[in-house]
Amino acid sequence: MPEAFSSAQAARDPANCAGSLLVISPHLDDAVFSCGSLLARRPGSMVVTVFTGAPQDAAVLTEWDRACGFGSAGEALRARHEENRRALGMLRCEGRSLDLLDCQYVDCPDAAMPRLTEALLSTVHELAPDVVAIPLGLFHGDHIRVSDAALLIWETWPGMSWFLYEDAPYRAQPGIVQQRLVQLHARGLVLTPAGFAAEPADKADAIAAYASQLKGFNGPPEDLSRPERYWRLSSKGEGP
């Protein structure tokens, strides 16, 4: 294979791009569920989780927290932070929390979009990674908001390599990935399939650390055992 072509192919693979990796995760499980194999290949990477804050009334109990076996939001968040700490430790990654509120704890989640965008902007500026992976933005409102906020700022760092990861397990819903790709194409974005290949077994133990979340799903969703998929982000007129 010619050297120039080989280098171009590597630039489309988030595992082989040179430099530091930042994965932006909506919740305390999404980075590992969707990118755990990639993180296993890149120890020392940073995972920034957006929705990690506790509501003012920590005794509130939502339907999802109850399904996960908790008696209050405060209890749920303490356990989820510990699960996330163990999971990232298994993958030899670092973690940071932005402490915004999960949509289940607020009446109008969209009202926090300016704060969310500013938090991501300042975090990316501070960390200055070489490679950024953000959610494609599938199904869940928090995932869509994080994806949209990240897409508002990606063009301000043209020197970075940006990838979108398919949100597991929501990507398994028929047609949902295609629908999102059409939306992003209409915005002038070009998404090229990335050539990442890794064994889902690389992240099996880390996934198991999220015992409460898996309980809420009534056991590990089948999609978590499927290979991860990534899309390299560029704009129209820019080469892939």
How is this structure best described in words?
This protein is an alpha/beta fold and 240 residues long. The protein has a single domain (3-57, 93-204, 222-235), classed as 3-Layer(aba) Sandwich (Rossmann fold). It has 9 helices and 7 strands, in the order H-E-H-E-H-H-E-H-E-H-E-H-E-H-H-E. It has helices spanning 3-11, 30-41, 63-67, 73-90, 113-127, 141-153, 176-186, 204-208, 211-216, and strands at 21-25, 46-51, 94-100, 131-135, 161-165, 189-193, 230-235. The protein has a 7-stranded mixed β-sheet with strand order 3-2-1-4-5-7-6, sandwiched between helices. Helix 5 (113-127) packs across helix 6 (141-153). 38% of the residues are buried. The model is unreliable at 1-10 (pLDDT under 50).
Cα gyration radius (Å):
17 Å
Helix share bin? 25-40%
- CATH architecture assignment: 3-Layer(aba) Sandwich
* Secondary structure category: alpha/beta
SSE pattern, N- to C-terminal? HEHEHHEHEHEHEHHE
**Assigned CATH superfamily:** LmbE-like
